[in-house]
Structure formats: C-alpha cells, structure tokens
Amino acid sequence: MKEIIIGLIFSLTTADAYSATTSTILLQSIVPKKVAITITPVSVASALDLSTTQADLKVASVNESSNSKTGYKVTITSANLGKLKRTDGSEVFAYSLKYGGSSVGLSTAAGSSFTNASASIVNANKDLNVSYTGVTPESMIEGTYQDTLTLNIASN
Is 125 within a domain? Predict the structure, then answer.
C-alpha cells in the first residue's frame, strides 16, 4: 500500500513540473471582398416622352456598395453610344447622361469610368439622369426607340 501512495505522489509532482505557464490561441477570420451595384429604374425610364425637352430627368437610382481595401471603379457603357435607336430601323435620338451629377461620355464603346479610391466601406446611392431636346412625333419615324446602359463595378 505504501508503494501505491508513493507512486501516486510521484505522478502528481512530475506532472506539475512539466506544465506550461503560458499558452496562446490564434483567433482568425477572412472577410471576403464584396463589390456590388444595383439599379432601380424609375417608371419613366421605359416610357420617355421624346416630344418634350428634358433636363436631368431621373431615370434610375443606383446603389454602389464595396468593402474593397483598394476602392472600386464604376464603368458605364451604352449599346448605341448614347443614342436611342429605333428597334426596327436605323434612326436615332441623341441624349446625354449624368451619373451622380457628373456627365457621362457614351460616344465610345469604352464609355465612362468613375473611380472611388477609398479603402473604406461604401454604401452610396446615386441618381442616373437623362437630358434631351424634344422633337415632335411628326419629325420622327414611328417605332420604339431604345438604348441599353450597362453599369459595371469592379475593385481597383
């Protein structure tokens, strides 16, 4: 019995002799990069009155969101290079565009880019506005005139 008690005492004291007094743990998570753009059209966007001159008519609200540490860039392009084109013909109707109050050049396939170099969290709403000089219906060939705008967002 004496041997068992001595063995037990020896086991307890040797375990304490090899214990660490400090230890660490690493807590970690990876936050993915998220950049997104959402367009919310106004009903007038699909029913423009081309006979009435418009100045900065709001056709959509655009939401930009980003958590990119390098910022982001929004590029706007026009399928018809800044013109409404008759869907079953070649006639066009010119317009100009503003994004967040800034003029947008649509006359080339590259369109226009707007850069936000901020390394912060962004959740911004911007208006998309069109302007044009109205033309009487008698001065245009009947039909549907349209253009498709593409807004792309990408991190810098």
Answer: yes
Residue 38, token pair as written in the block: 């959402």
User: Minimal CA–CA distance to 150: which of 110, 95, 103, 100?
Assistant: 110
**Quick check: is 139 in a domain?**
yes
pTM of the model: 0.83
Q: Which residues contact 109 (CB under 8 A, 6 or more apart)?
A: 77, 81
Range of the domain at 84: 35-155
Q: Which residues pair with 112 in a beta bridge?
A: 76
CB 89 within 8 A of CB 141: yes
> pLDDT category, 85, cuts 50, 70, 90?
very high
Tokens 């000089």 correspond to 133
Cβ-Cβ contacts under 8 Å for 63 (sequence gap 6 or more): 36, 37, 38, 40, 123, 124, 125
Please tell me the distance from the alpha carbon of residue 99 to that of residue 106, in angstroms, as a whole number.
12
CATH number for the domain that contains residue 52: 2.60.40
Number of domains making up the chain: 1
Q: Examine residue 49 and state whether it is found in any structural domain, yes or no.
A: yes
Any domain includes 67: yes
